[in-house]
Amino acid sequence: EAGVAQSPRYKIIEKRQSVAFWCNPISGHATLYWYQQILGQGPKLLIQFQNNGVVDDSQLPKDRFSAERLKGVDSTLKIQPAKLEDSAVYLCASSLAPTNEKLFFGSGTQLSVL
Amino acid sequence: GNSVTQMEGPVTLSEEAFLTINCTYTATGYPSLFWYVQYPGEGLQLLLKATKADDKGSNKGFEATYRKETTSFHLEKGSVQVSDSAVYFCALSTTNSGYALNFGKGTSLLVTP
């Protein structure tokens, strides 16, 4: 079974630039999550999708972050413009359904903002 | 709100030593509790879980018991191996959070031969 795919693996940008991350969840998984993991901290939920609808985006900084999952499969997370404090690993995870509490995580995209 | 507190790391142990990583939580409602592990260079993966009070989750020799009275879910292993070196995350989810995971800060474990 293929896992959760994320790209790119690493990204280095300057502050005020924009960046996008891509995630392809496990086939058949209806629920998709984006987490932000700052060095030395646990992952923090940014947004949760159920198919192509947003379930929870209360912790997404909407002035600069956006995410979409147009066809209910793969997803894109964008930051525009980036700030220094956005340097983190961005993790994508998926599960069969919201009530299926086993999440499968991708390897993440490590973002460095200079 | 929901939160998870883990013991600070790093934890360094010799092979075959006993491991305990403490985890306590605050939650509204009745949370499910989890331990996730992140091996070097790999993604987070579920280690074990417990969904109600007094449940014991176990996997790969690791155990954790859901203690509602002390709001704790401590991770234990009787004899650690070098291959157990990783970062361990305690987490919870609740129905009123849409079942999304709320993680602790993680505890790094290094096991030496």
Describe the structure.
The complex is a heterodimer of chains A (114) and B (113). Chain A is mainly beta. Helices cover 0% and strands 48% of the residues of chain A. Chain A is globular, with a radius of gyration of 13 Å. The mean pLDDT of chain A is 93. Chain B is mainly beta. Chain B has no helices and 12 strands. The relative contact order of chain B is 0.34. The interface between A and B is medium-sized, with 24 and 23 residues.
List keywords for this structure.
heterodimer, A: 114 residues, mainly beta, seven-stranded mixed beta sheet, four-stranded antiparallel beta sheet, globular, B: 113 residues, six-stranded mixed beta sheet, 49% strand
Helix-strand blueprint:
The complex is a heterodimer of chains A (114) and B (113).
Chain A: E1 5-7, E2 10-13, E3 19-24, E4 31-37, E5 44-50, E6 53-56, E7 65-68, E8 75-79, E9 88-95, E10 104-105, E11 109-113
Chain B: E1 3-6, E2 11-14, E3 19-21, E4 23-26, E5 32-38, E6 45-50, E7 56-59, E8 62-65, E9 75-77, E10 86-93, E11 102-103, E12 107-112
